[in-house]
C-alpha cells in the first residue's frame, strides 16, 4: 500500500504522469519559483520564532502581531510537527505511527499545533503566503485534524485555520474527534487509484492548468512549452 501526503495525492490527481516523473522516477525536478522560496523562508522564520524565540527578520516583521497572538494561547506548542498514520486490522483501523515508519500510510506536517490537554482541545494553523484567500482549500486541514486526533486521543475538538499572512486573512474550521476516520475517507478513492497505478506502472497524462508552460515534464504531449517552444 502506497504512503501519501496531501501534496503528493493532489499532485497525482492533477496528473499521474507528472506525479510519476517527480515522485517515482525522480528524473524531473520542479524549479523553485521566487514565491516558493519566499514561502519556505517565511515558514522557517515563523517556526524559529515560535519554538526558539528567535527574532523575526525585518522583511517578515508584518507577521509578528499574528504570531504573538498565537504564542499567547495556552497549551503545548509544536512547530513543524511530523505525524504518521498507518492502517491496522486489515485496513479498517487508523492508528498513529512514526513519520518514517516502514508501514506509514499517510504523512502530514503541521506548521503549528497547540495542544491544551486540560481543555481537551487543540489549535491547528497552516501558514499560507498566497496573496488572496479567495480559493482557500481546507481539505488539507481535515487530514491534519484526523492525524492530530489519532496522535492525541485526549483531544476532542480542534480549532483550525489557514492563516494567509500576506492577505491578512484567517479561514477557520472546527473539527470533532468523533469524525476522525471520516476526515481520511474522502481521499481513499484517490489513494486506491494511486495504488493501481503503482501496481500496473501505468501513468496516464492528464491535462491541467500547468500544461500551459509551467509543468517541468516537457516530454509530455500536453506540455504547451514543448509544442510551441
Overview of this protein structure:
- The protein has a six-stranded mixed beta sheet with strand order 2-1-3-4-5-6.
- It is globular and about 55 Å long.
- The termini are far apart.
- Helix 1 (6-14) packs across helix 2.
- It folds into two domains: 1-31 and 187-229, no CATH class; 41-184, no CATH class.
- It has helices spanning 6-14, 16-24, 34-52, 64-71, 139-151, 182-185, 188-200, 224-228, and strands spanning 76-88, 93-97, 106-116, 121-128, 157-164, 169-176.
- Strand 5 and strand 6 form a beta hairpin.
- The protein is α+β, with helices and mostly antiparallel strands.
- The longest helix is centred in the first third of the chain and has 19 residues, at 34-52.
- It has eight helices and six strands, in the order ααααββββαββααα.
- The model has no long low-confidence stretch (mean pLDDT 94).
